[in-house]
Design a protein that fits this description.
By secondary structure, the protein is an alpha/beta fold. It is about 40% helix and about 15% strand. Strands 1, 2, 3, 4, 5, 6, 7, 8, 9, 10 and 11 form an eleven-stranded mixed sheet that branches. α12 runs parallel beside α17. The longest helix is centred in the middle third of the chain and has 26 residues. It starts with 10 loop residues before the first helix and ends in a 5-residue tail after the last helix.
């Protein structure tokens, strides 16, 4: 993967060359860098390696995210990557979002694959594959604007989360009309997700899942005090953890998946208890510094976070990852293909389901792949919590998300910004 910066670069050189990184530094605990005087003085003597060491932030993961920020702002630089967007009136259109930590290596694979296939495809392709942190608002707007006309939809969608694909005001209406089909051709997916405890393969043959974003939690042992170490989602609902937990509410896909699973397995009572447990909203990347107190701000005892971001925490710090005994909560990475033009879409589905892409998902980003040929390197105790297709197909997921969000916020007893 191409990185734009090196650990030995000074903070001054990085922020001068890539001013778009300033806000990223500030949001990740380097507030002094918002001051241009500090950047010109102290920034000239401090390397990125030194700065991350002082904050106890994982160097490799931070540089990867920093490169992602730079690439999003200048996607057509000399990094050799495909641009996020190509719109030339192609015969088919692909759109969606890619998980932030692995967007760069996936785009590299995509570019290489397109270069190999450009003379044999026989048709043109438009695509818009942006980073997940940019959100799905524009995708949703186009789906709403289609107003029931499936011919105005893209031919292939890719994204984590539930609301876009199952909300009956969005993609759900087209799913009910039979517009989509799982064209992966796989009879069996990876045994990590197809066993006696879990099955991610849609029995209706409409929705495909190429990988998952697992959510676990981190425990700040310095803030835990004499409370017992929590080992499950159920433990987080105990009275001793009220007003103690940080949730990734700015990551809507993960937050919605979290609420849906808590409701599915612990009911409205579980949702309300999690609302009472809320201390603050936090972006997953901030988890690595959540043990650092600022003034009188209370430090979260527990931080719910995607598994990938848990790997960013320094092993010498106070944050301890916990894979819940009742299972990591799943936010599936869906692949939704329209039946129309499926012959043209099929090569792209095969690429996204390939072992090569699956290994990028699993190894580089800790987003386990459903490809049966990929070893996700999961241990026996790394199990998963999954809504189940029966639950999904029996509910209007879009409306259910709105309902349980209201119950959560009411229980939190304050407005969350």
């Amino acid at each position: 993967m191409t990185n734009y910066v090196k650990a030995t670069d000074t903070i001054y050189d990085i922020t001068e060359k890539y001013p778009e990184t300033i806000s990223f530094f500030v949001s990740n605990g380097f507030e002094n860098l918002s001051n241009p005087v500090m950047r010109r003085t102290l920034g000239k003597t401090v390397t990125l390696e030194m700065a991350l060491s002082m904050k106890k932030i994982n160097q490799e993961a931070f540089i990867q995210r920093l490169s992602e920020v730079i690439e999003q702002t200048a996607p057509d630089t000399s990094a050799g990557l495909a641009p996020m967007k190509k719109e030339n009136g192609g015969d088919i259109r692909i759109e969606g979002v890619l998980p932030c930590p692995i967007r760069l290596p996936l785009m590299e694979k995509f570019q290489s694959w397109l270069d190999e296939k450009k003379d044999t495809l026989g048709y043109t392709v438009d695509y818009d594959l942006k980073s997940a942190n940019l959100g799905l608002d524009d995708v949703k707007e186009r789906v709403v604007a289609a107003n029931g006309n499936a011919d105005l939809l893209s031919d292939l969608y890719m994204s984590a989360g539930f609301d876009l694909f199952f909300d009956k005001g969005l993609m759900g209406r087209y799913g009910e009309a039979g517009e989509f089909e799982d064209i992966s051709g796989l009879d069996k997916i990876n045994s990590d997700f197809d066993n006696d405890q879990i099955s991610l393969k849609d029995p209706k043959g409409q929705y495909a899942i190429i990988g998952v974003v697992p959510a676990i939690f981190m425990v700040n042992i310095n803030a835990l005090g004499d409370r017992p170490m929590p080992e499950s989602w159920a433990d987080l609902m105990k009275p001793e953890f009220e007003n103690s937990i940080s949730l990734p509410m700015k990551d809507l896909d993960m937050f919605n998946a979290f609420l849906l699973h808590i409701y599915r397995f612990y009911g409205e009572d579980g949702v309300e208890k999690m609302g009472k447990a809320l201390l603050r909203s936090m972006h997953p990347a901030q988890m690595v510094k959540s043990h650092i107190s600022k003034g009188d701000a209370k430090v979260p005892t527990i931080t719910v976070t995607p598994y990938f971001f848990a790997s960013m925490a320094d092993e010498k710090g106070p944050m301890r990852p916990v894979w819940p005994k009742d299972g990591a909560i799943l936010s599936p990475i869906f692949l939704l293909a329209r039946k129309k033009n499926k012959d043209k879409v099929k090569p792209f589905v095969d690429f996204l389901y390939s072992k090569e892409v699956g290994e990028v998902l699993s190894s580089n980003g800790k987003f386990p792949s459903t490809n049966p040929l990929v070893d996700n390197h999961l241990t026996d105790n790394q199990n998963f919590m999954w809504l189940g297709w029966d639950f999904i197909h029996k509910h209007d997921i879009g409306e259910l998300i709105k309902t349980i969000e209201r119950k959560f916020y009411q229980a939190a007893e304050r407005e969350i910004l």
